[in-house]
Structure formats: structure tokens, C-alpha cells
Amino acid sequence: MALPALLFFAFFGGVPLVGVVLLSFTQWDGIGAISWLGIGNWTSVLADPVMWKAMGLTFGIMVFSWAVQTPLALLLGVFTAGTQKYRAFLAVLYFLPLLMSAAAISIAFKALLDPNFGLAATLGIPILVQNWLGSPTLVLFVVIFVLSWMYVPFHSLIYQGGARQIPKTMYEAASIDGAGTVRQFFSITLPQLKHTIITSSTLMVVGSMTTFDLIWILTAGGPGNATRVLAVDMYLRGFRANEMGPASVIAVLIVLIGLLLAQLLQRLGGKDKTSSQMEGM
Amino acid sequence: MRRNWIAGIFGWVWLAIIIVPIYWVVITSLKPSSEYYTTNPLLPSLSPTLSAYQLVLENDFARYFVNSVIVTVCTVVPAVLIAFMAAFAIVRGSGRFLRYTNSFLLMGLAIPLQATIIPVYLLIIRLSLYDSLTALILPSIAFSLPLAVLVLSNFIRDVPGELFESMRLDGTSEWGTAWRLAFPLTRPAVATVSIYTGLQVWNGFLLPLVLTQDPGLRVLPLALATFQGQYSVNVPAVLAAVVLSTLPILAFYIVGRRQLVSGLTAGFGK
């Protein structure tokens, strides 16, 4: 009974994984014949400053969006795990971004940030009147903001689940000992959420290696190459410049770095058999 | 419990960050296109109109919607059935073959679809499936399997062994046990997995972008992106398309919020 799943995944998952490694050693324009090239693609891509810029950007966005999203998601998760009525009500609204596709979100923000007629420009607050998507530095803030807007709700759901599993008695004991809310947060909540933090961070880090939809629709990698992250770089090389070989090199790099980072984060969190499978995501 | 002011203020600020863009999208989509450039952006129009929505609907929205429904249903149903069968076999059976299958699928959790898009594209061309909805369905099924099998097998493992035993004593085949005992008992997990897979496919953008070309085959996210290119001056229409594409999921959220929320995280919060 396991056969259909195995065959299906082997054909569309296993074969492509081997395939992308093989293709990285070939020359192919996406239409014509595929010819063997050897390590040519690898040497040229590894010497290409565009790739290194994309790599740096990917890591930069990864680190910054992790640093923005983790505290927000953690606080919101703990906040919505509380039992007060208004928190439950707020939680219903917090999760609205989860219902929207990356396409819908990026299109909405593209309109919203329009330098002439968007909400940011017409509110009458001078600091908001900027060419948000046209400036190579501002656009990075925009990308991190929109990524956070989209993904914080998902991660706060994970933290909410984690926070609800912390035994109530721990807080009661702490209250009796006279620990305030802040103290309780740092001495109970945070340590108890260690595994949740690792899971959420792994998903964030590995996910940001492959971020494509949102950035592609929001900026198409621009202005210039200002938001050309690895996944966008791969798409542009492969499907716009018709150079599947170099694009496959980038794809292999994405997989390798993703696996490496997932392993690293797992080590950081200590081995835990039951959740480690999830963390590999 | 004591009131926690800091948490409260933080909670309302975040609410504003989430709600203001959504509110702006909705009210702007209801403005006449001429009014968009002239009125206060945060005030609803005094003469709200559905003309933006009409324009979107006239531009084949229904077809894109149907395409999205076809791709989503034709992915979720087979994916969940196949995954359930595999999960059942892995939990109930033994032997090297099943162990390898399990570890192979678990390894699959780490393979991102984005990184294999080029060979997937090559496969689809070679299978002469390029520019068809089937081209979107087959890889989507495959890439939803690892997580689906993982979540489902965790649940099947929780079914008490005595139940399986009594089915066996009654002479029920493994196949019958799978569908008449395990499947109904793991329904919550089946729902979770279906919702998670469904949302991934419904919102998917890269596969349609790479594997289809015909405007008639566009699914919603891809249609949104092209619509935005065509009607960039008619912002209310673009935003109406955004609203319309989100409505089905919103309806779902209102009806089955709990199910949807647990499906969204597919058990990551466990």
C-alpha cells in the first residue's frame, strides 16, 4: 500500500533532486538538447559577483527577518494563548494574513506603497512618503516588513500551541513566590518554549532560503539587483536568461545550504527524536 | 489574572498593523476608479460601487477560479488517499522495504519544491504535459506526500492496537481495516492534512508560473499577478481581484476556523 506514494515521490521528488545535480553539469537552454559540460557552470557561477550578492542578500534577509519575526511571533503567541476574551477575539483577526496568498499580499502592498497614490504616500505623514520600492535600501525594509506581515501569524500560531502546553501550575507556583509577569515570562515561558523556538526558527531559516513568490511579485528582484535573492536569481537565470545549467547550480546551493542550516539549528536545540523530524522541514 | 497593560498595548498595535492594510484594500476596492486618486485613502467612498468587481469578473475571473478549484481538488484527494495508504502500511507493516520508504519520504521533507523546479520542468516537458493543469497537479501531489505521510502516520500510531486485533479476528483484510477502521478514526488528521495541502496548492505560484503559458490555464495567484500588470492604473480593480481571490478561504475561515487553524500549522505546534 505504500507503493503509490513511494513511486510518486520518487518520480517527482527523488528524480528531480538527482536531476538538478546532473543538470548543474550540463548546458541547456530550456528548449533544445542538453549537452554535458562538466564543471564549467560551477566555476562560472562561483566566480560570479551576482551570485555572491544574491547569497549575501538571502542571508541578510534571513537574519533580519528572523530577528524581527521571532520576538513578535513569540510575544503574540504567548499573548493569544492567554484566556481573556479580547485576546481570543484579536487572535481571530491576527490570523487574517494567513488566508491570503503571497501573490495577493505582494500585490496589495505594491499598491499600498505606490509612491504617488498609495496609502503610505497619501496619508499626509511626511516620513511615509518615500519611493519604497524604488530605492535599493528602502526596498529591503519593505521586503522584511511584508515577509513579517505574512509569516508572523503562522509562527505565532506555533508559539501559541507551545505556550498552551506549559503547565499552569508553574505560573501558580511562581506567583506564590512573588514573581511578576515579566519575571515569569523570562524564567518560565521562554525556557519552556525552547523547542518551539528551534522549530519555528528552522522553518523560518530554511523557508527564507527558498522565498520566491513574494519577492518576485513585489519587486521582481529589483530595483537593479537590490532584492535578487538566491531563489529569484535561480529563476532569472533559468527561465529568463535560458541558462538552466547555472540556474541548477544555484538550486543545488539552495538545497545544500538549507540542509546545512537545518542540521545546525537542530544541534543548537539538542537532539530530540520526536520533534527532530519536524525540524528538518 | 492581573491586567497586563504592556501586553495589551502591544496586542492592539499589532492589530493595527494587520488590519489597516486589509481595511485599505477592502475600502479601496469599493471605490470608483476615478475617486481613488482624489479622496482620503482611509475613508470609505461616499458612493461605493462594485464596478471594480464587475471588471474583474468580466476578465475571466470565474475561469481562473475554476482552474484553481480543479488543481486543488485533484491534488488534495489523491494526495491524501495515497498518503493515508502509505502511512497505514508504514505503521502496521514491517520489513526493510517499508522502513526505507519511510526514511525516503522523511528525507523528502527537506527537499524544497523551488530548488527542484528545473528538473520538474524538464520532466513535464518530456511527459508532454507542459501547459496543462495536469502538469500542476502531479508535482503538487508528490511534494505534499512527505508531510502528509508523517502527520497521518503519527495519528494512525495512536489507534489502540486492540482495535486492529479485533478487526483481524473478525477476518477483515488489511485493506478493509485501513478504510473501515483507521480512516474514520484519523479523520481529524485527514482534515488537517487536506487543509494544509489544499492551501499550499491554492496559493501556489511558482509551479503555474513555470509550467503553464496559456492564459486560459491560469490559476488565481498567477492570474492576480498578470491582472496587476494589465490594470496597474486601475488600482480598485487590482485590489478587487485580491479580495475576490481571498474570499473563498475567508468563507472557509468563518465556517471552520478551528479546523483551518490546525490545518495551517499541520501539527507544527505539537
UniProtKB/TrEMBL annotation, chain A:
The chain crosses the membrane at residues 6-26, 58-79, 91-113, 133-154, 203-224, 244-265. It comes from the Bacteria. It is a multi-pass membrane protein. Its main location: membrane. Keywords: Cell membrane, Membrane, Transmembrane, Transmembrane helix, Transport. GO terms for cellular component: plasma membrane. Residues 55-265 form the ABC transmembrane type-1 domain. GO terms for biological process: transmembrane transport. The keyword Transmembrane helix applies. It is found in: Cell membrane. The keyword Transport applies. Pfam families: BPD_transp_1 (PF00528). PANTHER family: ABC TRANSPORTER PERMEASE PROTEIN, INNER MEMBRANE ABC TRANSPORTER PERMEASE PROTEIN YCJO. Belongs to the binding-protein-dependent transport system permease family. This is Carbohydrate ABC transporter membrane protein 1 (CUT1 family). It comes from Quadrisphaera granulorum. The lineage of its organism: Bacteria, Bacillati, Actinomycetota, Actinomycetes, Kineosporiales.
UniProtKB/TrEMBL annotation, chain B:
It is found in: Cell membrane. GO terms for cellular component: plasma membrane. SUPFAM superfamilies: MetI-like. It is a multi-pass membrane protein. Keywords: Cell membrane, Membrane, Transmembrane, Transmembrane helix, Transport. It comes from the Bacteria. The chain crosses the membrane at residues 7-27, 64-91, 103-124, 136-156, 189-211, 231-255. Residues 65-256 form the ABC transmembrane type-1 domain. Pfam families: BPD_transp_1. Signal peptide: none annotated. GO terms for biological process: transmembrane transport. The keyword Cell membrane applies. InterPro entries: MetI-like, MetI-like_sf. Its main location: membrane. Belongs to the binding-protein-dependent transport system permease family. This is Carbohydrate ABC transporter membrane protein 2 (CUT1 family). It comes from Quadrisphaera granulorum.
